[in-house]
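#struct-help
A.M.: can someone run this one for me? Single chain, 151 residues.
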Amino acid sequence: MVHPQVLVITPRRLPSFFSTSIFDQIDVRLARGRSFEEISQGPFSPGEPTSALWARVPGHLEPSAATLAILGDYVTGGMAQPLGRRVMSRSLDNTLRVVRLEPTEWVLCDIRIQALADGYGQGTAYLWSESGNLLATASQSMSVRFAPPLG
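D.P.: on it. Structure tokens below:
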């Protein structure tokens, strides 16, 4: 796990094709792993199956189960980390297991990819409060394919 007290200040830049999605409303900071730019521009090389990001919905200090479910959907994006390439991952199923709800501005999404085989993958996110308490776990299975080059 990435230590919950380490908050990275640099905002994550979203590609323009996310500008009309719900992810445009979430403030994200990369805590561990490669940035979108690093993965998109190469060189393409396999990486770690783990990554982490801090996320918040501005103005929402008390995350709900619904908010945590949205943040848990970052598992699909974590598939690019071990592959070292931009991918298109589509969730096939997801499960959110809420441990506790407590006020926190930022939620640490500690993402771990467990498997990738024959175009399908699975992963888990541990969702932590700023004070280091586990809020929930989110798991997903997904279809995975390489994304077309940007440009």
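A.M.: thanks! Confidence is low (pLDDT under 50) at residues 1-5.
D.P.: also worth noting: The chain has one domain: 16-144.
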